[in-house]
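#struct-pred

JT: dropping the chains for the assembly here, can someone run the whole complex?
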Amino acid sequence: MTDRTVPEAATAAPVAVHRERGVLARLLRRPLALLGLAIILLTVLGAVFAPHLVAHSPDEQLFEGLTIEGAPLPPGGQFLLGTDLLGRDLLARILYGARTSLIIGILANGVSLTIGTLVGVLAGFFRGFFGNVLMRFTDLMMAFPALLLAICLAAVFQPSLWIVALVIALVNWVQVARVIYTETSSLTAREFIEAERSIGAGSGRILFRHILPHLYSSIIVYGTLGISTTVLLEATLSYLGVGVQPPTPSWGNIIFENQTYFQAAPWLVFLPGAAILALALAFNLVGDALRDVLDPTQRGRL
Amino acid sequence: MLGYLARRLVQAVLILLGVSVVTFALLYLLPADPVRQIAGRSATAQTVENIRRQLGLDQPFLVQYGRYLLGLVQGDLGRSYLQRSEVSDLIAARLPASLLLMAGAIVCELAIGLTMGLVAAVKRGSATDQTLMVGSFVTVSAPQFVVGLLLLYVFAVRLGWFPIGGYGTFRHLVLPSLTLGILGAGWYSRMMRSSMIDVLRQDYIRTARAKGLPRLTVLLRHALPNALLPVIAMIGIDIGLFMSGIVVVESVYGWPGIGQLAWQAIQRIDIPIIMGVTLVSACAIVLGNLLADIVSPFIDPRIRLR
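RK: done, full complex below.
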């Protein structure tokens, strides 16, 4: 929460503010949340300081990176995590790949969170024809197999980092919209909203000062959990070859490029695989802990 | 109930219609030209034009879509551009393999997920409970292709217990089912845990214990069936997860299902196949959701369908 939003929420809903106080403190008392935050921090640091942490660029095909027979080097020795099929430093590729995951994770998730919240709030608040049309469209999107849709979209636009982020956002906003819709429509039916209306408050005022502050917890929770989904989808698209294109490293396309050789060089698949798992797990752990801290009634649900 | 069903079925048809429009439009906008793929590199401009006219791809969007829809209502999904056969035949040939895989996945996710959830609920608050719940987070955070490659590496390449891929016997089925099911196992274990905890709090459980029934009998005969029902009702919703999962899992294991069919068709821009598989998948997802909604009032009479 930034300083600006808290006083606004205070006028609208004292309960919400009480819950928000000390969220970080309570989060830090949970070992699993702490583990998640540590993984995220480590990934961010690795991504930001990548050039200072490794001697080689991720694209450099090193002569000493291959054995005399032309095979990649296993972890240990000169290269901490070994090298890939082209003799590139795997640690460098994984660190630079973290940039891809984080950029797409945050960007795509930000866009899908925005679309989802907008659709959910509007459909839940303005019921009737407009809201109905929005929710039927959401139903339609739910009927698509998400991955097939993403692959088709990625094939329609030539995949670049930004396009992949956009494609993921276009597939992922649906879940957020459904959650926000349900909450908004139950809020809209509550008495304090009716009271607000009866003293002459306009729709805009009600939306921004009374509905949105109540949705902050859900938006924060789904925003965090959503990054995990996004990271996984990006990895999957890149693994299939329709995501981020080499030579730009991404954890998914490192596996895509090297999997033909994975029986002899399993580290080329499982090290980037472990990185994907760790980052997705971290955001899931933090998101779940946030849900417990922000909304105790939902404890234990995923 | 009948009125509700009729309304939901009409809705389902409208949703499928919407899916067909959106997919058709997406594929129409494709920058790559399917006709070039069919004709090959060396084809003359004349040949390309002929093929385009033959397939009706020179027509405006609405005419093309209208034709497709007209075929669709007669059960005709069109012909593949590159393989000389009907799309419905291609899908029918591949569908059993995918259904088998999904059945295997359901068995795996229920067996693993329900057991994890049950144990966690009974040992609530203990270290076992916490370990299991962390485990459930790990399974929902693991990318399916990595799980697939890991199982393949450990159990097929290293230990040699299962074949490295392919299709045919029960042993071929184990690893792909496990890969597809493990994601759902995480979700089920959490749902099962909270459902079981809710049930164990009920008065009738205390009554059963109070009249001296053994703990295990109370757990398995009185609590389990009630905790199980709302969880089982979610199976219909899994179809959506599976329809995405099979594209990855089938490609990792070389499983000859509709996921592979779709994936190959996308790479070759074989539009009728992409349309067909998308529609079949959407159909399955819509029916799965409908099924989940219809079952729930039977399981919990407090739920009313509106």
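JT: nice. Chain B touches chain A through 55 residues (CB under 8 Å). Chain B has a mean pLDDT of 86.
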